[in-house]
Write a structure and sequence with these properties.
573 residues; mainly beta; eight-stranded antiparallel beta sheet; 2 helices; 51% strand; binds calcium ion
Length: 573
């Protein structure tokens, strides 16, 4: 048992109302007997009731179908006959008040005139000795090939007298039956209905084929928690094939696919995660020091939903559980962050009500986190500060690995009082500019131009007008947006300031250059100033063919990404 706090984040309350509306769409149990024929139901999620183990209930080869029914035509079936073993399969126990539906297909191959019941709800989900059965479904014959279905709420006083339909149904025919158990607080007030061959996809009929009111004296059970398959009493047992058993809280999902994609439980290392709720999708899990992996288990709210778990492979790490509804359309993803410790990223907004920040909160130690600023109308983002220091100037702030608590302020400024000053170098590789950004009305802003190798700064212009020729430009009393250009020109001096790192070999047929950095521009001039060769190689190694050139002295100028280079070259033929 872990003795530490499991944090959780309540991020999903907005989903609460939708989830409440969906609760009746849960499928609590469904079984299409999609198991190998001949195997016993006790091999497949069913438990033996009481101690009788003779004539165990097995999976049959026949697969029942009913047009439009969700459990139609899947897998095999269960075959019940002579008195012997009974079995039950549990579901999440349902307490008062509420309606519970049990739908299934049945094909009766033999029945007695005495009649007997073969399926019912049972009180306990797990107890093999609990024998409180409710909503018992009976079948009897007229002595020939006609049969009737009946229902009792509970254990009738002897002799058992179910309410039966007319003997208008036939042996060896597949029927869809739906038991509705109406459970109310107090007694006697529960009742049961049996629908025979309802139309799948249609609303619940206003009247059932058979109704049995609460005429027994039993008090309310603690709930209903399983489905019982019963092989009857010697001499009265029918032989039935049961298939597509489905327990649900609504008529709709008793007969049709469910669209619920939530979890009913989420365990980490065997313990339900602190604060679990089906409608909370993000959790934080503090892992004990030294533990390097986690085991996740979960249960879906709807038995017919499916889930896929991807557990974190290291700590800190994140696990996800994706749940897909029976419909295949609705999905939910639950996320668990595992870490040895958690830190708090506190974010405040300045000034108040000027914007919002997403992200922050509790973050696992060592994991990254991202804050995203969104200004309210009338404001623009300015910067992030922590302890008075600017730590970011773009609206998205990422902390690569959170190793402590943070108290971050997101600053916005009123857009009506703020102007943006942008600055671009011309040409784009002529140099760099610092200092551009937002400035409040009437404020000052200073731009600084820095030359790239080979370039010289000329001046600042805006819309073609020269603003200054100092490498530092200050705009005062800013009252508008500005788009400033810093102009540079390429230097054509013979003696450049930086000239190392490029090797030149001049032969009779070619001149080869090899540079430690990429050669961007290459120009070779004759001594009278004419261009003999010009190229933009964009590579570290260049070979210039010079076989047709006259003997003489040439000036070679190369501009690499980090330097410029000028050298005289003598070509001797
Ligand atoms: Ca089946
Ligand atoms: Ca009651």
């Amino acid at each position: 048992m872990k003795q530490f706090i499991r944090f959780f984040s309540g991020l999903a309350l907005i989903c609460l109302f939708g989830a409440v509306g969906q609760l009746n769409g849960q499928v609590l149990l469904y079984d299409n007997f999609n198991y190998p024929a001949g195997e016993f139901l006790t091999d497949h999620n069913w438990l033996q009731q009481q101690t009788t183990a003779t004539f165990p209930i097995a999976v049959g080869t026949e697969n029942l179908s009913y047009s439009g029914y969700v459990g139609s035509g899947i897998g095999n079936s269960a075959v019940l006959g002579i008195e012997g073993q009974d079995v039950f399969r549990g579901f999440t126990k349902q307490t008062l008040p509420g309606n519970l539906y049990m739908s299934f297909m049945v094909k009766v191959t033999a029945a007695t005139a005495t009649g007997d019941y073969f399926i019912a709800f049972k009180e306990s989900s797990t107890s093999t000795t609990n024998s409180n059965y409710r909503g018992r479904v009976w079948v009897k014959s007229d002595g020939g090939s006609n049969i009737a279905f009946g229902i009792t709420k509970g254990a009738m006083t002897s002799p058992m007298v179910p309410n039966y339909s007319g003997t208008t149904y036939a042996l060896n025919t597949t029927y869809l039956l739906v038991v509705k158990y109406i459970r109310l607080d107090g007694d006697p007030n529960d009742s049961v209905k049996l629908f025979i061959n309802p139309v799948a996809g249609s609303p619940e009929p206003s009247s059932a084929a058979v109704i049995n009111p609460d005429i027994d004296s039993g008090t309310d059970l603690t709930g209903l928690g399983s489905v019982l398959l019963r092989q009857g009493t010697n001499g009265s047992s029918p032989t039935v094939i049961v298939d597509g058993v489905r327990v649900s809280k609504s008529w709709q999902t008793a007969l049709n696919v469910s669209d619920i994609s939530t979890l009913s439980d989420l365990k980490v290392d065997g313990t339900t995660i602190y604060g679990f709720s089906p409608t909370i999708f993000n959790y934080n899990d503090t892992v004990p020091s030294g533990q390097t992996s986690v085991l996740l288990t979960s249960a879906t709210s709807c038995a017919a939903a499916t889930s896929t778990t991807n557990a974190a492979t290291s700590i800190p790490g994140i696990s996800t559980i994706q749940v897909t509804a029976e419909t295949g359309t609705s999905t939910s993803t639950y996320t668990v962050t595992h870490a040895y410790e958690f830190f708090m990223i506190s974010v405040s907004i300045a000034p108040a009500s000027s914007g919002a920040v997403s992200g922050g909160g509790v973050v696992g130690g060592g994991l990254p986190t991202t804050l995203t600023a969104s200004p309210n109308a009338g404001y623009i983002f300015e910067n992030w500060t922590e302890n008075g220091n600017i730590i970011g100037t773009t609206p998205v702030l990422t902390i690569p690995a959170v190793l402590g608590n943070h108290d971050i302020v997101c600053h916005f400024v009123a857009s009506s009082n703020t102007f943006t000053v942008t600055a671009m170098p011309n040409p784009v590789d002529g140099g760099t500019i610092t200092g551009s950004g937002n400035v409040t009305s009437g404020g000052n802003i200073t731009l600084t131009a820095t030359e790239n190798p080979g370039f010289i700064f000329d001046n600042w212009t805006e819309s073609g007008n020269v603003l200054g020729s100092n490498q530092s430009l200050t705009l005062t009393n800013v009252q508008a947006n500005h788009s400033i250009v810093a102009n540079f020109h390429y230097v054509d001096f013979i003696n450049d300031q930086v000239k190392t790192g490029i090797n030149v070999i001049a032969g009779t047929e070619s001149i080869s250059l090899r540079s430690s950095s990429v050669i961007l521009d290459l120009c070779i001039y004759s001594m009278d100033g004419r261009v003999a060769y010009k190229a933009r190689p964009n590579t570290n190694s260049v070979i210039v063919p010079s076989g047709t050139w006259m003997s003489g002295t040439y000036i070679l100028k190369a501009r690499a990404s980090d330097r410029v280079f000028t050298q005289k070259v003598i070509i001797i033929k």
